[in-house]
Amino acid sequence: xxxxxxxxxxxxxxxxxxxxxxxxxxxxxxxxxxxxxxxxxxxxxxxxxxxxxxxxxxxxxxxxxxxxxxxxxxxxxxxxxxxxxxxxxxxxxxxxxxxxxxxxxxxxxxxxxxxxxxxxxxxxxxxxxxxxxxxxxxxxxxxxxxxxxxxxxx
Length: 154
Prior knowledge:
Blueprint: E1 56-59, E2 62-71, E3 78-82, E4 91-95, E5 99-103, E6 108-111, H1 115-119, H2 131-143, H3 148-153
Parallel strand pairs: 1-6
Antiparallel strand pairs: 1-2, 2-3, 3-4, 5-6
């Protein structure tokens, strides 16, 4: 087996943070009602910095919470997610590498981990979130990383 080149702290698609979105054709119908209106905010344009605080976080098998804090530092990106009642109000640290895609219209960040994998991750305590803790979290998610084709097909 080939060693993983997964970097848990690097954003897979930095354009998702800067208003990146799927290209559409001119004939594509905008989401929403017949007049093109929709209830949510407009998606930011390419290159527009985006603050993900307040976005919902969706694991591969269900919602886990709302983003409380983010970092987009090079090789140190992460999300702090407030899980609300799901894990009794605890917060979890998700490395940026777990983000599969960002839906700016619905304000949802999709991660490629299950709710159980996230729940079983090292507990987050902002007072002790030092280098050692970050290394433990990084190892935890790297050890469980499967390229998306393997995750979905086998």
